[in-house]
Specification:
The chain is of the alpha+beta class. It is built from three helices and six strands; from the N terminus they run αββαββββα. It has a single domain, classed as Roll (Nuclear Transport Factor 2, Chain: A), CATH 3.10.450. It has a six-stranded mixed beta sheet. β3 and β4 form a beta hairpin.
């Protein structure tokens, strides 16, 4: 990839389009298979309501952990991607819903909406990933104890 001072506006927009396409492909299946890490910087910063860390290795670990726990604790789990678009020159936003059924006798259902804001370098790589949820983590946890619908 060219350095930022050599990246033309059209090359930058092509890179943004590639990042959006990769997110559209990766996010819906993140509970089933690994994502592509080529669109992230080595020092990617991640924050959601329960985690905060820096570095691509930690980023890889969080996605591995999501897949592991999804298979262990859920009979079914989905990451419904509603939209991914560029909201500013160096910002991409994804709108999504997580929903699933826990592997419990009472089949508790988990459901929450969220969004991911990705900030990009001048080279069009994601260096900051911030997730927000429509409810706090304790409200999500309370769903584990409610009986699901059959």
């Amino acid at each position: 990839m060219k350095t930022s001072e050599n990246l033309s506006q059209s090359e930058y927009q092509a890179q943004i389009a590639q990042v959006i396409e990769t997110l559209q492909k990766d996010l819906p299946t993140l509970f089933e298979k690994d994502i592509s890490y080529d669109i992230y910087t080595k020092d990617i910063y991640f924050q959601d309501p329960v985690n905060r860390f820096k570095g691509k290795l930690n980023y890889r670990i969080i996605f591995w952990t999501l897949r592991f726990h999804a298979q262990l604790f859920f009979t079914e789990i989905y990451f419904d991607l509603h939209d991914v678009n560029q909201t500013d020159e160096d910002v991409i936003k994804a709108i999504w819903t997580v929903r699933g059924t826990l592997r419990l006798p009472w089949r508790a259902r988990v459901f929450f909406n969220g969004d991911s804001t990705y900030q990009l370098t001048k080279d069009g790589l994601i260096y900051n990933h911030l997730d927000t949820w429509d409810r706090n983590p304790s409200e999500v946890l309370k769903q584990f104890f409610r009986k699901g619908e059959d």
